[in-house]
Amino acid sequence: MAANESFKSLNLGATGRHAAAQIARQRNAQGLSYVALSNRLEELGWPLPVLALRRIEAGARRVTVDDLFALAVALGVSPFELLTRESENTPAGTGVPPGVTTAEVLAWARNETGLSTDERLDYWSQAADRAMAEIEEWEQFEATAKNGAARKLASDRVRKLEDQLALAVKRLEALNDG
């Protein structure tokens, strides 16, 4: 099939469109041709011909759960990476309520929270509490560390935890205001 030949797109939801784009992005980032990816899938025992891969990326073929898992293995990424958005400026996924962030979708996928406002408030409150407790522990470690490398490790960890705390506080404020 010619590279410039187009396919009739299906009416995919946000998640289906994103999965198609992510599969293409991952394949291109790895410098894989359709043939190379098809060969990898064949080796995994889930053959998808080149035409099927082209149609998936064009949004003209739905991705089954089996396809998704095999493609994730072949591309060396998690299936969830193929399903979730990279930016808050794109839809979170089919059926996900408006205003739910990527971080919240990922936490939901790990079964750490639900998607209701109350569940997300609880999640971020617990995240803030954990971050504050860990900051205190690492600051104590930093104060008693005997060498520079240990102090730097502690200092770097505190900075990362402070960023996590700031995100939790920001989300708590946004959810309380919304």
Automatic annotation (TrEMBL):
A Pfam family the protein falls into: HTH_3
Keywords recorded for this protein, A-Z: Coiled coil
InterPro entries documented for this protein: Cro/C1-type_HTH, Lambda_DNA-bd_dom_sf
Coiled coil: 151-178
Domain HTH cro/C1-type: 52-82
GO molecular function, one term: DNA binding
SUPFAM superfamilies, per the entry: lambda repressor-like DNA-binding domains
CDD domains listed in its UniProt record: HTH_XRE (cd00093)
Extent of the signal sequence: none
Cited PROSITE patterns: HTH_CROC1
Domain of life according to the entry: Bacteria
Record protein name field: Helix-turn-helix transcriptional regulator
Species of provenance: Microbacterium mitrae
